[in-house]
Amino acid sequence: MAVLLVDTANVVGSRPDGWWRDRAGATSRLLRRLAPLAGRELPAPGGGTVVCDEVVAVVEGAARGVDAPDGVTLVRAGGSGDDALVGCAARLAAEAREQLVVTADRGLRARLPDGVPVTGPGWLLDLLPA
Fold this sequence. Notes:
Blueprint: E1 2-7, H1 8-12, H2 23-34, E2 40-43, E3 49-59, E4 72-76, H3 81-94, E5 98-102, H4 106-111, E6 118-119, H5 121-127
Parallel strand pairs: 1-3, 1-5, 3-4, 5-6
Antiparallel strand pairs: 2-3
């Protein structure tokens, strides 16, 4: 069972759908789409499956005040969302919890603890209901 740890700003920003006009609204829509993933077996990036027992979404900036739908745990970054996500990934790794980080941010990927699997927003968005 794995924690799906989502860089929401990166995922929202990966599609040019007007998110920049309402960052909080775009984040809320993404969170609602993420909620059904908790407790499901998902096709893993690269093959196989991964059981998602928890969805954790890091929110920052204008999106920090959004509400969390049932099934999603929010990490509200007081400053840098990247710093908050790296801290969360480090805590999960220290607890020996399986995780899968979703981000396309190369700088963020380089800061994650060794061995933490990472996939891009495309994988996640392909799984989500419209």
